[in-house]
Amino acid sequence: MSGPAPRWGEQPRPPEPPRKQHRLRTALLAVLGALVVLIAIGVVATGGGDEDPPQPPSATSENTGREEEKPEGDEADDVTRLELVDHSAYGVADVRVEYEFTNRSGEKSDYEVTYEVVNEKTDKRVWQSVLLETGVKPGQSATGEDPINVPEGTGAEQLEVKVTEVDRTASF
């Protein structure tokens, strides 16, 4: 027998139940640990993302020393409309930049167009923004509008919108 004998009038202690094995918790923690290890290995294998991304090749060919021709035309030509439209009413300023991009390339493309709004009287920039459109098919047009904040006392007729950069990339 294990332990001392019970005293006169005392009941013996019932045996303790077996300890739980927590199989589900152990399995979940093992899977989570393996996932963390796999992610760490993936980050190390890809370089951790701390380095600068590789730069695309330049537009000049190293063999010939002359610029390569782009058969699709210039990316800036794909911005077919970019204009300020004043929807202000009842004393509430509501000026928007309405745009249209037409994909003139031979493949599905994403667009990132940077523009600025300049006060024509002072020649100062009052707004700058980026327009994004994704998955525009060849020949297809994408339209939209971007609301802007206009400084108080500045009417839309005093403003001019200018495209500063157009970036067209192949869509996946």
Report on this model:
- It is a single chain.
- A hairpin with a 4-residue loop joins strand 3 and strand 4.
- The longest helix has 23 residues.
- The chain has 172 residues and is mainly beta.
- The strands form two sheets. The chain has a three-stranded antiparallel β-sheet with strand order 1-2-5, with no helix packed on it. The chain has a three-stranded antiparallel β-sheet with strand order 4-3-6, with no helix packed on it.
- It is elongated, with a radius of gyration of 33 Å.
List keywords for this structure.
172 residues; mainly beta; 1 helix; 6 strands; 35% strand; elongated
Strand content: 25-35%
Please estimate the helix content: 10-25%
Radius of gyration: 33 Å
Shape annotation: elongated
Strand order of the largest sheet: 1-2-5
Strand tally: 6
How would a crystallographer describe the biggest sheet?
A: 3 strands, antiparallel
Write the element-wise H/E pattern from the N-terminal end onward.
Answer: HEEEEEE
Derived structural class: mainly beta
First-to-last CA distance: 75 Å
Average pLDDT, rounded to a whole number, is 78
Number of helices: 1
Task: List low-pLDDT spans.
Answer: 52-72
